[in-house]
Fold this sequence. Notes:
- The complex is a heterodimer.
- By secondary structure, chain A is an alpha+beta fold.
- Chain A is 44% helix and 19% strand.
- Chain A contains ten helices and eight strands.
- Chain A has helices spanning 6-13, 62-75, 80-84, 88-94, 103-120, 141-151, 156-163, 173-184, 199-219, 249-264; strands at residues 26-32, 37-45, 51-59, 132-134, 139-140, 223-231, 234-241, 270-273.
- In chain A, strands 1-2-3 form a three-stranded antiparallel β-sheet.
- In chain A, a hairpin with a 2-residue loop joins strand 6 (223-231) and strand 7.
- Chain A is elongated and about 90 Å long.
- In chain B, the strands form three sheets. A seven-stranded mixed β-sheet of chain B has the order 2-8-7-6-5-3-4, sandwiched between helices.
- In chain B, helix 6 links the parallel strand 5 (140-146) and strand 6 (171-175).
- Chain B folds into two domains: 16-256, 3-Layer(aba) Sandwich (Aspartate Aminotransferase, domain 2); 259-391, Alpha-Beta Complex (Aspartate Aminotransferase, domain 1), CATH 3.90.1150.
- At the A-B interface, helix 1, strand 2, strand 3, helix 2 and helix 7 of A face helix 9 and helix 13 of B.
Amino acid sequence: MWEYTDKVKDHFLNPRNVGVIDDPDGVGEVGSLACGDALTFYFKLDENEKIADATFQTFGCASAIASSSALTEMVKGLTLEEAKKITNEDIAEYLGGLPKEKMHCSVMGRDALEKAISCHLGEAEKEVEGEIVCECFGVTDVEIDRVVRENHLSTIEDVTDFVKAGGGCGNCHDRIQEIIDGIRGTVHPKRKKSPALTNLQKIKLIEESIEREINPNLKKDAGRLELVDVDGNRVLVRMGGNCASCVKSPVTLKHYVESKLRELVAPEIVVEEVQ
Amino acid sequence: MDVIYLDNNATTKVAPEVVEAMLPYLSQYYGNPSSMHSFGGNVSEKIEAARQHVANLIGASPKEIIFTSCGTESDGTAIRAAIESNPDRKQIITSRVEHPAIKNLYETLSKKGYQVTFVPVDNEGRLDLDYLYKSLNDDTAIVSLMWANNETGVIFPVEKISREVKDRGIIFHTDAVQAAGKFQIDVNNTGVDMLSLSGHKFHAPKGIGVLYIRKGTKFSPYMIGGHQEEGRRGGTENVASIIGLGKAAEMAKQHLDENGYAGVGQLRDKLETSLLERVTNSMVNGETENRLPNTSSIAFEYVEGEAILLMMNEHGICASSGSACTSGSLEPSHVLRAMGVPFTAAHGSIRFSLSRYTTAAEIDFVIEKMPPIIDRLRELSPFWKQKGQVNS
């Protein structure tokens, strides 16, 4: 159940300006059936170059319909210069706010408005700017960059709520995080990007790490670690020497060995002891 | 405004008789069933009576029934028990259309090194049996398949599949949460080793579930604690809910024995046929032959489910949509996607699920209200004029 404001409900149940303008001065289409929402926005100018009429057609949820309806009301009487300044936040504000998960509806409104204005000005359909980051929803780095800056977003979930990017398979999450980090000027204290290792390289690296780093340290307590097997990211080891009988060895295993291997080999490593 | 509740696969009304049966155990009879004194011991007798009723609903013996907190706990307990009793086996099998209780658990186990096989379904929601049987091998720890699908109502041939699986020495679990009380179940005609039920899907309260464990099945508890449920599920019993569940199971069994669900099926058919007649570009999701009598998933092309639901809500009509329009990712349900339902239809899918309390008048009301809702939303939709009307 979404917490919609009365204004959202009103614009959903009684949408203003539905339909097509037969001879429009500008048309903007965004979204698709596959994506789950789509909006076509039309406007007509008067003799003073102000927007005399604006209409829409929307396929989508209640907030998509309400955002479209709100947009048509907001632009009436504005010059194109003035209309250009409308942001997605303005649309959401006009409706008394939208649930965070639904902010992409307001972004869709803004995008349709921009497209319609470009269409009127005779600007060629903009080539897709930037490179696609989210393959599932076809969102580019430029779009993500913009929405993060304009709405002061700070997490991947925020970005998904506003432009859907990252809401599908999730493969682009690292890239989205990089964009956010770049804008916020913070280097995320996150794991180094682990180079893609082949299985053979990984096993060798684990062996080397144990021999050069871990065992010399365990040796101080007359302990020893033996690599038994590697299965994906599971590293199976046997504890020898004093470690075998030491009650603290499970702690050593988790705290020291595992964190060392995560640091040196890959952050996904899980160490398990076998008898 | 009256509520017209056609969302019974989500949860059901607690039967008034169930509430009545429970009330004394929320007030005067508060004893602990494990106590030595008769004040507590009497409660224990009531629990055993409830166990018998639940066993009767599925043809089990009372000793094979343990009470849990919900269907999800039952599912999780069954899968984990199967894995623990077969530590050498690393493959686990299920279908692509399971409830999240199984789906997400399997995905979690996959990250822990289990090899997970998700058996596909065809575009009518029928399980690919060849694929399933070819996937079975000596490394398979468990096969878990839902008996009936919560979104489409499609029934898997669990009797037959479970015997095939069991013949190969593999544990078979079924999530029967949507099946129980909607058609006759007799575990004796199956190879089912474990079966999950949830009380609130058949007019008991929320927060009470059941796991059937066939006698002789290796088991290890998930909730470790006291000796309750013969050590198979620790924790003081949810007494009032168990007693309510017993009453609900008794009533469900009686309703089935009297062929009461035929009436529910007729109402469902009337709803479905009328809507398909009155609304162009609409279709049923899933096969209609082997299907729960109370469920109808209908796709209304070129409109979006949440918008439909909110307009229905204005008339007090409760149902569910097949698309989870959440957190920006407007992905239609995994069930409809697994069936290959096209996006045009998947986003506008509505699940109607009836119960024995649904009346003919309510169905008539819904038949009257739905077509204008779809028409209204199609008027708003940019795709309708381009595509829909051309086809119709």
